[in-house]
């Protein structure tokens, strides 16, 4: 097959991949009509992970692609920041102004005054990471991406020594699937595809562990709704029972774990009664879960991101992961623990990112602390000069970043120049000085990898873009010319030339992957299940994580060092109360969980997604509502020292007493006071390698 397969005189099928910030990276088929216009989007049946299934929001992608609200021309701000007064200008003029602003910022405060700020609005390697090449070439401030993966990857790798695991397709061969901290029905539908297959074909049981009764919980044979931030306590109690009742695989641990004797002694006091008092689960629920996984050799622990977005999230991931080692689940097909396969993909990113001229002395700034950076916090600025110019691609910090009141205050600075390259007039674009219209994924070439599976996938250009929009790569190349660095290695290459270089170590070529659409990189069973030893030098799984010296994909550079309350981290898996504990003034825990029809701040601009989500709401348990005189649909106010906002209450048994859940990142303007839910979230880093604890907030609640 090639990029487009004729199916009739009127239609062809084009093959591509979903670019959005999701581990699934679904292989897609797109119907194209005779004029080259995209029609139906669907999952590829030929891809064994996607298996023909994609989420509803991507299935209706034409609504986004052909939206009347899409940005089409470059714009210059005319009035006050955020006032919405724009003048259309040419691409030449817009890029000239951006370059001039960067030169001016550098002349006044040094090269670090410019901060290229980006993230995962596209997961395409070329369109996402080319901005790093410009950053290295110009010695602009570095970007430390912390908002998503730090806690999860750190906790996992400090246990296994590597960011890889069993083939996720083995879920379908499991006898028990544990979905821990991931609302897969809403956020990773392919996980549910394979879990439900295991249930239908093998009678497998599905366990769901989360903080509220969400759509995935409704698929569970054993639903476990615990208090936010208490996952490690549950894991410890189950390991306690495994040692107590003979489920622990002592022979396996003797060969493959660092200190099972010390772990068993540590867990003596981590009884089900102890965990029940922390998690809110009953002793019976904990015992039932322990018995199920203890008696089921082929238990597959699918560990998500959600439960790690707490101030003890790194510890929680490591504790849940340790359970698979105590039980010896790794030994079996359909068993073990999986989080992300990031390590298995082999790319040569030197030319793409300009790593040859990276300067380790350039400061690294924390993505999650953009509010502090832009308001002059000395520690956030690494005790150096101010940031006075931003280039933003693939992210929307005015909506998704913590401490939103600080973020807004920073963006409103008169001395800050902001250029935003975007597809829609997002909250961030509204605060820009220059807005540049961007292509969408079907309109450019790129290469993707699926952290939630094992494929590298090609995403070719299959639709002609509007004539006035440009790719991320175009913007970087044109700025490089204007800033005098376009002669440096890596510049001047096309998307396809970059892709060919990226694929060098992978064992395939651009021509072959274009023909075959993807490359399956899944390691052999023995490697994926660590049967030749774990990734640490001693070959052991580490029940004793090296929080101080351990090497992980997210470890901050030496210039930044360890982050957060490292001294509170435990020697063995344990519950640590570094979370925001409730108090008399703030008796509720708030989580800002994903919505089914949004993806971070993406898709909130499409009409159908907004209609299906309704409006911003906060879930409140009926007992809490009754005590506060709140009825379903009432306006309530929630707040903490970071801020407060009005929002409608959804009174529901889906949340536990004392827990509030606000689903979805709505645009700020969708909220009654023009401020989104992230005014309540904090940016203090999680130990030991940073990250944003966006689901970990103590708040008060009252009727508005």
From TrEMBL:
Keywords: Iron, Iron-sulfur, Metal-binding, Molybdenum, Oxidoreductase. Its cofactor is Mo-bis(molybdopterin guanine dinucleotide). It comes from the Bacteria. Residues 11-69 form the 4Fe-4S Mo/W bis-MGD-type domain. One of its GO terms (molecular function) is iron-sulfur cluster binding. SUPFAM superfamilies: ADC-like (SSF50692), Formate dehydrogenase/DMSO reductase, domains 1-3 (SSF53706). Belongs to the prokaryotic molybdopterin-containing oxidoreductase family. PANTHER family: OXIDOREDUCTASE YYAE-RELATED, TRIMETHYLAMINE-N-OXIDE REDUCTASE. This is Anaerobic selenocysteine-containing dehydrogenase. It comes from Allorhizobium borbori.
């Amino acid at each position: 097959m090639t990029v487009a397969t004729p199916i009739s005189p009127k239609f062809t099928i084009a093959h591509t991949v979903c670019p959005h910030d999701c581990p699934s990276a679904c292989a897609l088929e797109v119907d194209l009509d005779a004029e080259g216009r995209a029609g139906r989007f669907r999952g590829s049946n030929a891809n064994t992970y996607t298996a023909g299934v994609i989420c509803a929001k991507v299935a209706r992608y034409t609504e986004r692609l052909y939206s009347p609200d899409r940005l089409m021309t470059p714009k210059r701000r005319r009035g006050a920041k955020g006032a919405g007064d724009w003048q259309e200008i040419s691409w030449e003029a817009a890029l000239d102004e951006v370059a001039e602003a960067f030169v001016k910022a550098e002349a006044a405060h040094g090269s670090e005054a410019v901060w290229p700020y980006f993230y995962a609005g596209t997961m395409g390697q070329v369109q996402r990471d080319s901005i790093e090449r410009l950053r290295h070439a110009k010695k602009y401030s570095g970007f430390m991406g912390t908002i998503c993966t730090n806690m999860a990857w750190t906790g996992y790798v400090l246990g296994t020594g590597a960011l890889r695991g069993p083939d996720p397709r083995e879920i379908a061969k499991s006898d028990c699937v544990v979905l821990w901290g991931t609302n897969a029905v809403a956020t990773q539908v392919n996980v549910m595809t394979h879990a439900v297959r295991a249930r239908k074909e093998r009678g497998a049981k599905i366990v769901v562990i989360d903080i509220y009764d969400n759509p995935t919980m409704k698929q569970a044979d054993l639903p476990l709704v615990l208090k936010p931030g208490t996952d490690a306590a549950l894991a410890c109690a189950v390991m306690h029972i495994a040692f107590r009742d003979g489920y622990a695989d002592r022979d396996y641990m003797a060969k493959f774990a660092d200190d099972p004797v010390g772990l068993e002694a540590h867990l003596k006091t981590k009884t089900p009664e102890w965990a029940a008092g922390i998690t809110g689960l009953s002793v019976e629920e904990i015992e039932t879960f322990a018995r199920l996984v203890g008696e089921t050799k082929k238990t597959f622990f699918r560990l998500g991101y959600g439960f790690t977005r707490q101030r003890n999230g790194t510890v929680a991931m490591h504790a849940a992961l340790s359970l698979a080692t105590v039980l010896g689940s790794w030994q079996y097909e359909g068993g073990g623990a999986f989080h992300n396969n990031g390590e298995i993909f082999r790319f040569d990113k030197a030319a793409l990112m300009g790593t040859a001229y990276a300067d380790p002395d350039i400061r690294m700034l924390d993505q999650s602390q953009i509010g502090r950076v832009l308001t002059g916090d000395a520690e956030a600025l690494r005790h150096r000069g101010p940031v006075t110019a931003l280039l933003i691609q693939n992210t929307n910090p005015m909506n998704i970043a913590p401490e939103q009141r600080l973020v807004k205050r920073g963006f409103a600075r008169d001395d800050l120049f902001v250029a935003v390259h975007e597809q829609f007039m997002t909250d961030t674009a509204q605060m820009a000085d220059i807005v540049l219209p961007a292509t969408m994924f079907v309109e450019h070439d790129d290469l993707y990898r699926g952290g939630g599976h094992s494929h590298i996938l090609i995403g070719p250009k299959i639709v002609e873009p509007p004539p006035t929009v440009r790719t991320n790569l175009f913007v970087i190349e044109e700025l490089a010319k204007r800033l005098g660095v376009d002669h440096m290695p890596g510049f001047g290459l096309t998307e396809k030339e970059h892709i060919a270089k990226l694929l060098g170590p992978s064992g395939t070529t651009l021509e072959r992957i274009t023909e075959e659409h993807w490359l399956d990189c899944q390691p052999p069973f023995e490697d994926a299940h660590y049967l030749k030893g774990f990734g640490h030098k001693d070959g052991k799984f580490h029940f004793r994580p090296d929080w101080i010296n351990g090497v992980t994909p997210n470890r901050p550079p030496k210039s930044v060092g360890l982050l957060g309350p490292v001294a509170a981290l435990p020697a063995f898996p344990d519950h640590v109360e570094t979370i925001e504990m409730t108090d008399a003034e703030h008796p509720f825990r708030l989580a800002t969980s994903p919505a089914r029809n949004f993806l971070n701040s993406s898709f909130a601009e499409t009409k159908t997604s907004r209609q299906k989500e309704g409006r911003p709401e906060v879930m409140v348990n009926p007992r809490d509502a009754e005590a506060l005189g709140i009825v379903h649909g009432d306006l309530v106010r929630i707040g903490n020292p970071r801020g407060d906002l009005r929002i409608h209450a959804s009174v529901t048994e889906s949340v536990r007493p004392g827990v509030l859940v606000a689903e979805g990142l709505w645009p700020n303007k969708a909220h009654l006071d023009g401020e989104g839910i992230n005014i309540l979230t904090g940016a203090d880093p999680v130990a030991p390698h940073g990250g944003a604890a966006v689901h970990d907030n103590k708040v008060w609640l009252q009727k508005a």
